[in-house]
Amino acid sequence: MTGRRPQRARDPEARRAALAVATMEVIAEAGVGRTTHRAVAAKAGLPLGATTYYFPTLDDLIAAGLRHAVDMLQTDLDEWAERLRSAPDVAEALTGLMCEYLGDRRQARLEYELCVAAARDEALRPLAEVWMRGLPEILEPYVGAAAGRDICALLDGIILLALVTESELDAPGLTAAIRRLAGT
Amino acid sequence: MTGRRPQRARDPEARRAALAVATMEVIAEAGVGRTTHRAVAAKAGLPLGATTYYFPTLDDLIAAGLRHAVDMLQTDLDEWAERLRSAPDVAEALTGLMCEYLGDRRQARLEYELCVAAARDEALRPLAEVWMRGLPEILEPYVGAAAGRDICALLDGIILLALVTESELDAPGLTAAIRRLAGT
DNA sequence: ATTCATCTTGTACGAACGTACAAGTACGAT
DNA sequence: ATCGTACTTGTACGTTCGTACAAGATGAAT
């Protein structure tokens, strides 16, 4: 009375992408160390074998999930650059962008998960550097290279604080601190 | 020709402590998610059963390891307070302390591992807050509460950058940035 | 010297893991 | 229409996991 369930329409590219997305979500919820083939397959609604068919090892699967997260981050960075370009005040615009960024803590959690993983695994370091090099690059035209790096570090510290304490962002304080680092 | 190996001298307190230290080291090397009873037991040179005798569950064992890490961090914080008290220049003293702190990246890795774990598990949050509340408290007498928080965030971001890029600390740049945030 | 609670040690067990693979199905090429 | 490659799906295997527990050893109390 059973038999296997009928096969779905074939779409290898979509499967790869769906697995990467599902992996990203599992990492965000459980962490890199507790990410398993089975959890990813369940999240994606795909059979276990699909994960190993498209990604030879678990490390490959995790790397694909992190890479997808970084791709989304790059999209965000591009939007940040766009918004800053048309902003009358860089400090206030950055504060606003941070407010939005912290609206969904899952993305921030994922990014820091990536950083911790990159601190341990050299192969992941280029992924983690997308943010840490990209943001100062965006800021450099407005405040110079040194202040760009400083402000990036400040924001990273603020994000960490928000992750750990679940507290609200002190927007006016952040704007003021950015202004001090920018030297304006 | 065999038989079990002879029992060692009894010292429950020392065993608890040794297990906490071993757990801390395993977390630093493998991450919270890949920390297992067996890895901790092997690191401590104790039988597997010792881990479950002193800590009912794996979560308890991990919490003990993280708590021990935070205890060491608190000791560091006390030393930071002491050093700042007798320093002619707060910004330069902080830069020097950061240089020393980043000398052994394992401690920094462990601290960020704790932060990421605390972001996911509310029960760990008080542990992670020891640093994020303690450092601003130390800085407050010198630069005020707001600048203390800002400088703490800046330092946290710098540490994250150092973890991800393995780059050297830009000491003069850091001193200058601290001065700007302090408003001096 | 005997007792007993406490600690040590080795082993056992079911669950979950990474990975491999057989069997079946879809679909472009012919 | 058929064929062959590429994909889908379910299951199997050996390993490692968290946890439980039996059996022995210790050492303070009696």
Automatic annotation (TrEMBL), chains A, B:
Record domain HTH tetR-type: where: 13-73
Residues annotated to bind DNA: 36-55
UniProt keyword Cell inner membrane present: no
Entries under Gene3D superfamilies matching the protein: Tetracycline Repressor, domain 2 (1.10.357.10)
InterPro entries in the cross-refs: Homeodomain-like_sf (IPR009057), HTH-type_TetR-like_transc_reg (IPR050109), HTH_TetR (IPR001647), Tet_transcr_reg_TetR-rel_C_sf (IPR036271), TetR_C_31 (IPR041583)
Organism: Actinoplanes aureus
GO molecular function: DNA-binding transcription factor activity; transcription cis-regulatory region binding
Protein name: TetR family transcriptional regulator
Keyword list, A-Z: DNA-binding
